[in-house]
Specification:
single chain; mainly alpha
Length: about 180
């Protein structure tokens, strides 16, 4: 036995707490624009997709299949905690990615409102609105698994979290791929 189960337990608890906070933020972002004509615009569509993704990551079942570990009860507990750690870490990763995408879409709303200044889209503001859309696409394209993983890893280290057994990015990606959307 390696004596790290208390660290594993604390890490899982911290990750789940962060996941819960992110889920709360994700769930509280509006997904319907004030004007029905804006429903299909890129930013509002992105916000609705984020809400769906947030619901999916919340609802997908945890993988609780842990092979029998040699070495008794403490080794079995270690194996179970490592599996739970992967699940919690991956959920937080995906929630953070959704949160960053939502933030980009919310900036798009602010930019767009600044362009429109209470008016509706027209030929005079079309080019500026296209620039808002392009900026949104750029920002969304920059929210990659690699960026999110590095941000979270840096944050965890700077906050002094125990990261000794955090899963690799490839493990997180495998976890995500094993939970495809049904929509």
């Amino acid at each position: 036995m390696d004596g790290l189960n208390d660290y594993r337990t604390a890490r899982v608890a911290g990750l789940l707490e962060e996941f819960q906070s992110l889920q709360y933020c994700i769930a509280n972002v509006p997904v319907d624009p004030p004007y029905a004509n804006d429903y299909h615009t890129e930013g509002w569509a992105a916000l609705r997709q984020c809400a769906l993704d947030g619901q999916h990551i919340l609802n997908c079942a945890a993988d609780v299949t842990v092979p029998r570990a040699r070495g008794g009860e403490l080794e079995q507990r270690k194996a179970e905690l490592k599996q739970i750690l992967l699940d919690a870490y991956s959920r937080r990763h995906e929630a953070h990615k959704i949160y960053l995408r939502q933030a980009a879409a919310q900036r798009w709303i602010d930019y767009r409102e600044g362009v429109l200044q209470g008016q509706r889209p027209n030929s005079a503001n079309r080019q500026q609105l296209r620039a808002c859309d392009e900026q949104l696409r750029l920002e969304l394209s920059q929210v990659t698994d690699e960026v999110v993983y590095q941000q979270l890893q840096s944050s965890d280290i700077s906050m002094g979290h125990w990261t000794g057994e955090d899963p690799s990015l490839s493990a997180v990606r495998r976890w995500v791929r094993a939970r495809p959307h049904t929509t």
